Amino acid sequence: MAGGGSIAETGVNKERAKEYQGRVTPYVIIACLVAAVGGSLFGYDIGVSGGVTSMDEFLERFFRPVYEKKKHAHEDNYCKYDSQSLSAFTSSLYLAGLVTSLAASRITRSRGRRMSIICGGISFLVGAALNASAVNLVMLLLGRIMLGIGIGFGNQAVPLYLSEMAPAHIRGALNMLFQLATTLGIFTANMINYGTSKLHPWGWRLSLGLAALPALLMTVGGILLPETPNSLIEQGKREKGRGVLQKIRGTENVDAEYEDMIEASDLARSIHHPFRNILQRRNRPQLIMAIFMPTFQILTGINIILFYAPVLFQSMGFKGTAALYSSALTGAVLVSSTVVSMAAVDSWGRRVLLISGGIQMIICQVIAAIILGLKFGDDKVLSKGYSILVVAVICLFVAAFGWSWGPLGWTVPSEIFPLETRSAGQSITVAVNLFFTFAIAQSFLSLLCALKFGIFLLFAGFITIMTIFVYLFLPETKGVPIEEMMQLWQKHWFWKKIVSGIH
Question: Is the pTM value of this prediction over 0.85?
Answer without folding.
Answer: no
